[in-house]
């Protein structure tokens, strides 16, 4: 927005704020769709199903109800973001790469054998 103001686009394109909002809405929609897809695939793997499409609607209901419950009370949302979310995000940001590294060392020989077997075929 600031770049558009400093370029003085308003002289040429009136109501350029709507264009900026459209770009913002498209990025939010893409982020929501990808989050729903990832959550649905994770739910499918946890339940042991063969297709993720069966759990899209229940996953969407769970995520939206949790989001509505958190954001319904401003104090609850601020407490969650300042308290629990910090520990959750640090755990994911540090723990997940560490877990992948450890699993890579543990399953290194097995993965090499599978790659060699695939190349032989």
Automatic annotation (TrEMBL):
Transmembrane stretches, start-end: 20-43, 55-72, 84-107
Keywords attached to this entry: Membrane, Transmembrane, Transmembrane helix
Protein name per its UniProtKB record: Uncharacterized protein
Source organism of the structure: Robertmurraya beringensis
